[in-house]
């Protein structure tokens, strides 16, 4: 019934262990009366089933699930491995994760374990098995969540078990130390290894950082470890599932190949969407160009990339706040609705709110749920009821795919390399921000596509693919993009593409290395833009653009020079080269994208504002489109508290209000319009 393509379903996160049993029945009845059909439970409650090592008791959740069945509430049950019990970490401190210096993280918060501890893996496997054996056949259970937010809180691991597992990972990858030494470039600074026992996860060094090629392998290893821990659990659970029940996990965190994890272990991914973070991370709210909560659409698009059908396991419903950090205000009237619709517009067919009632104890007493501590009826509960009425009207949208003609190409190696390498990181950050903002403000829906998981068929769906700064280029990726262009696609590369191989070492080919034949370009010189260079400008057929962060001077070999630098010592050198390839074209742009440059590319390449014939939208509104059976549903989301005026240029059905709309339509502050066109 979840993600079945027929309905949008609402849920909430509930913690029976936080409330007296006398409250459970009424809570369930009240949820159901307000449109909540599914609850997620038990992700932090290991002790309720195994209070002592090897002692199993099922009464607590049996009593609770009895009530769920009596009430007609459906349940997502979780494995409890995000919070190891005190008895476990006290007896087996080797299960703890450690900081870079090898000092263990102690009991008292959560996610303090490491994925590779043999004892933790075996105790996790056993609790998963026990839960599956006892609960999986309960009629109220519809699916399972693995752990909670893999790689949240901390996404680096330095325990002894991690070093041991890293050695196994590396032996499997390289077979011999000679190959490892070559891949890590250990000839530099006398780092050669002569025995596997000398190899560790990165450790404290002078300067704090280790060999960069080792670090790149280490991030791959963390992803591998998290995936293997997820698979350990899903392999145990899977045979116990009732037909139709699913396995998922929640969140989207660093150092984890979510595509691979989803393919190996999950039926779909769920995301935890807290757009209110925009108001605690971005303390200076005076920047008129900032996208604030609208930026969360980027995370939703990333979730969709890994799992085309997905849900939201935790959707913001109240103010944020841990006892010591992350303060953000209560969502204003309408924002809970707006953020729910943002999730649905981007492809979520299940939205579950965090949490039913605000906790009265512990670290998250300010992380508000739908209800406050007192449980009294409140504004957010009333808003939930209205949202439920809206989701019923949106039933036809369930199962619809997100529709975009533009994709931003990424891959995990480059995401991780950009984190490790400042030259890479700065161009990547600038361009990702610019491309997303330009797409948002020109109302151009975009998808993220991961080259390491995509097929040529998937790429071929897009008219234009931006591949901003894949500094690491593989022959397979260069080949796929060449075929994509030959078939009629347009691919746009930014500066610094293809100067590294998969080990993260620089290639000695003429740049841009593996994509030189595709782009027809040659880069005789490159530089960070010097701090004293001022505004470095580019002329593209009379349109002035500004170079950002880096300048590759790019000249055509068998391509065409499209634009030139017009300032500093770069003046007169090429800034943009293109080459016709089969039915398509490849561009090499010698710098990072500014928002303006991204907009100009989208406009010149004819993919900006694909809905301009149907609607004229103010910049403050986002456009997101889902399509099913040839029917498009366009969501217009207004992130501002003031009304937005939209001009609908032909009569379209109004999905939420019934009837049709045409001409000037006012979308209220934080309001949403969904039209069929
Ligand atoms: C999520 C997490 C929840 C809760 C929430 C608020 O990241 O999954 O358990 O902690 O944040 O902090």
Characteristic terms for this protein:
alpha/beta, 677 residues, binds beta-D-galactopyranose, nine-stranded mixed beta sheet, 31% helix
Summarize the structure.
The protein is α/β, with parallel strands linked by helices and 677 residues long. It has 19 helices and 26 strands.
Account of the protein in words:
The protein has 19 helices and 26 strands. It is of the alpha/beta class and 677 residues long. The strands form four sheets. It has a nine-stranded mixed sheet, sandwiched between helices. An eight-stranded parallel sheet has the order 5-4-3-2-1-8-7-6. Strands 9, 21, 22, 23, 24, 25 and 26 form a seven-stranded antiparallel sheet that branches. β19 (574-581) and β20 form a beta hairpin. α15 (422-441) packs across α19 (595-604). Beta-D-galactopyranose is lined by residues 148-149, 152, 272, 314, 354, 364, 367.
């Amino acid at each position: 019934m979840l993600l079945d393509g027929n309905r949008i379903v609402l849920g909430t996160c509930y913690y029976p262990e936080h409330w007296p049993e006398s409250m459970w029945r009424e809570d369930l009845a009240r949820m159901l009366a307000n449109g909540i059909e599914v609850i997620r439970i038990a992700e932090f409650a290991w002790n309720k089933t195994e209070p002592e090592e090897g002692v199993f008791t099922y009464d607590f959740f049996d009593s609770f699930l009895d009530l769920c069945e009596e009430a007609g509430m459906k349940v997502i049950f979780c494995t409890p491995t995000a919070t190891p019990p005190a008895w476990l970490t006290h007896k087996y401190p080797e299960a703890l994760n450690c900081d870079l210096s090898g000092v263990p993280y102690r009991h008292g918060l959560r996610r303090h374990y490491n994925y590779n501890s043999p004892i933790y893996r075996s105790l996790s496997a056993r609790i998963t098995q026990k839960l599956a054996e006892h609960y999986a056949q309960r009629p109220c259970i519809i699916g399972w969540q693995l752990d909670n937010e893999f790689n949240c809180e901390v996404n680096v691991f330095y325990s002894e078990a991690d070093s041991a597992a890293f050695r196994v990972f590396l032996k499997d990858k390289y077979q011999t130390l000679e190959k490892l030494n070559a891949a890590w470039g250990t000839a530099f600074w006398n780092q050669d290894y002569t025995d596997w026992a000398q190899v560790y996860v990165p450790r404290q060094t002078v300067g704090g950082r280790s060999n960069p090629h080792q670090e790149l392998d280490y991030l791959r290893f963390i992803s591998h470890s998290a995936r293997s821990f997820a698979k350990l659990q899903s392999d145990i659970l899977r045979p116990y599932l009732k037909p139709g029940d699913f396995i998922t996990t929640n969140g989207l965190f660093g150092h984890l190949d979510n595509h691979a994890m989803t393919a190996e272990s999950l039926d779909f991914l769920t995301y935890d969407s807290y757009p209110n973070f925009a108001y605690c991370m971005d303390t200076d709210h005076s920047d008129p160009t900032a996208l604030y909560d609208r930026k969360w659409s980027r995370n939703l698009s990333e979730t969709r990339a890994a799992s085309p059908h997905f849900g939201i396991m935790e959707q913001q419903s109240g103010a944020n706040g841990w006892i010591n950090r992350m303060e953000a205000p209560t969502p204003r009237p309408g924002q809970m609705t707006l953020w729910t619709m943002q999730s649905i517009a981007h492809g979520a067919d299940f939205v579950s709110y965090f949490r039913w009632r605000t906790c009265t104890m512990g670290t998250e007493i300010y992380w508000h749920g739908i209800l406050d501590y007192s449980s009294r009826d409140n504004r957010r509960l009333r808003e939930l009821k209205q949202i439920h009425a809206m989701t019923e009207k949106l039933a036809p949208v369930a199962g619809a795919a997100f529709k975009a003609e533009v994709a931003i190409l990424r891959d995990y190696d480059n995401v991780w390399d950009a984190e490790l390498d400042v030259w890479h990181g700065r161009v990547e950050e600038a361009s990702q921000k610019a491309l997303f903002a330009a797409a948002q403000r020109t109302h151009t829906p975009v998808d993220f596509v991961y080259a390491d998981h995509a097929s040529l068929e998937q790429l071929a769906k897009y008219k234009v693919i931006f591949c901003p700064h894949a500094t690491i280029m593989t022959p397979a990726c260069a080949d796929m993009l060449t075929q994509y262009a030959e078939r009629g696609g347009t691919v746009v590369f930014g500066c610094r593409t293809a100067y590294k191989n998969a080990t993260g070492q620089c290639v000695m080919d003429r740049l841009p290395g593996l994509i030189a034949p595709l782009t027809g370009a040659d880069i005789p010189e490159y530089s960070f833009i010097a701090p004293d260079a001022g505004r470095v400008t580019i002329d593209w057929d009379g349109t002035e653009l500004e170079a950002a962060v880096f300048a590759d001077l790019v000249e055509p070999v068998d391509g065409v020079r499209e634009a030139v630098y017009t300032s500093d010592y770069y003046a007169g050198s090429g800034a943009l080269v293109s080459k016709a390839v089969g039915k398509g074209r490849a561009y090499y742009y010698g710098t990072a994208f500014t928002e303006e440059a991204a907009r100009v590319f989208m406009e010149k390449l004819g993919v900006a504002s694909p809905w301009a014939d149907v609607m004229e939208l103010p910049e403050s509104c986002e456009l997101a489109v889902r399509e099913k059976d040839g029917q498009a549903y366009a969501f217009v989301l207004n992130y501002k508290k003031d009304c937005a005026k939209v001009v609908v240029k032909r009569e379209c059905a109004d999905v939420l209000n019934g009837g049709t709309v045409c001409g000037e339509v006012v979308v209220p502050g934080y309001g949403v319009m969904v039209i069929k066109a």
